[in-house]
Amino acid sequence: MGLVVQKYGGSSVADAEGIKRVAKRIVEAKKNGHQVVVVVSAMGDTTDELIDLAEQVSPMPAGREFDMLLTAGERISMALLAMAIKNLGHEAQSFTGSQAGVITDSVHNKARIIDVTPGRIRVALDEGNIAIVAGFQGVSQDKKDITTLGRGGSDTTAVALAAALDAEVCEIYTDVDGVFTADPRVVKKAKKIDWISFEDMLELAASGSKVLLHRCVEYARRYNIPIHVRSSFSGLQGTWVSNEPTGDKVEQAIISGVAHDTSEAKITVVGVPDKPGEAAAIFRAVADAEINIDMIVQNVSAASTGLTDISFTLPKAEGRKAIDALEKAKGSIGFDSLRYDDQIGKISLVGAGMKTNPGVTADFFRALSDAGVNIELISTSEIRISVVTRADDVNEAVRAVHSAFGLDSDSDEAVVYGGTGR
Ligand code: ADP
Ligand code: ASP
Ligand code: MG
């Protein structure tokens, strides 16, 4: 029996009962002969509550202090979980990200893991302990400051540790039975996927399926770590994410699923002179503010001639920063005005089968139009097509597309065991 890494999300450890339930599950894995490393998230919505608190004392908290605050959430759950395991008669030790050897760059709030040196975890395991590691945090290589990996980052901690410790599998325990063909909170008829390729999972995650974070899938693909996404509330087999189908023969579906995302906003730069170098200047200003953008569209300006409008989407959380950066560069770029719209949503259809099946795009647009949904922006990759719509239309649009592509299940409704969906 080898080493397993198990990650429990916030909804699985939302209260004392949840922690005790999860402790029993961990002890079972240990009794089955595995060495067990557990990565744990903050309890329930603790991270959101800490963010709310920070915003009450400062509108733009400094990154270093913000990270120090947020990592407190995982410290609480890791210590409580270790106590609960000891109470069941087994040895457990908890470790912060820093103690576990999670070394990152120094970009606060969205640090990247650059190395994992889990010496202390190895020692703890060799001494017979279950090792509990705080997710979503690390320590910066240069300044030795505490960092966080961005929302949902415990998934990445788990896969990074699994790679560094050469684990058999990385199990991600959450509040649904696996990866579904759409978010079960929105589509009751979503189907559980038995196996999905890294490639398709990467696109789903990048398009807003927060059941797995896309950096975590990227990491798993790079180090070829199979991920098993499953519920901590049921004993069911979940979804395997890997290079090759595992277990019973499962074929790659043409369409893997529908993802949606309402965490983005749209900025329109109005009245940009239609000449070379303008787009470069706009996106240089945004990039220098360390903001990642998603979709881009350029239109002939409705207002005047010889000018264009350039729209792009970005995380809502970066909206203020982007507007400030563009306002500052207004003189040198030369545009009329900026428009900010945070009432948008994105719907994406994902599947490697798109490459070889013509007509997928046409069917996707037909489904949206039949549902009366207007499309504002479009972007595609080889295996994904995404549109931006009004935020109010998103749920309806996801259900319509899911049905149109024959993804609705005709048996059980998807179960959501916990969590608030926040
Ligand atoms: P955790 O606290 O365990 O990290 P998350 O809230 O981050 O849990 O992720 C689980 C949630 O992801 C589910 O409750 C579900 O609402 C959402 N989700 C979005 N898309 C999907 C999908 N395609 N399959 C399963 N869950 C999804
Ligand atoms: N607690 C952090 C968050 O809510 C990290 C995680 O849960 O993965 O984003
Ligand atoms: Mg998560």
TrEMBL record:
Domain ACT stretches: 267-343, 349-422
Native species: Streptomyces hydrogenans
Enzyme Commission identifier(s): 2.7.2.4
Enzyme class: transferase
InterPro entries: AceGlu_kinase-like_sf (IPR036393), ACT-like_dom_sf (IPR045865), ACT_Aspartokinase (IPR054352), ACT_dom (IPR002912), AKii-LysC-BS (IPR041740), Asp/Glu/Uridylate_kinase (IPR001048), Asp_kin_monofn (IPR005260), Asp_kinase (IPR001341)
Role, per record: Catalyzes the phosphorylation of the beta-carboxyl group of aspartic acid with ATP to yield 4-phospho-L-aspartate, which is involved in the branched biosynthetic pathway leading to the biosynthesis of amino acids lysine, threonine, isoleucine and methionine.
Name this polypeptide is given: Aspartokinase
Phylogenetic classification of the source organism: Bacteria, Bacillati, Actinomycetota, Actinomycetes, Kitasatosporales
Similarity remark: Belongs to the aspartokinase family.
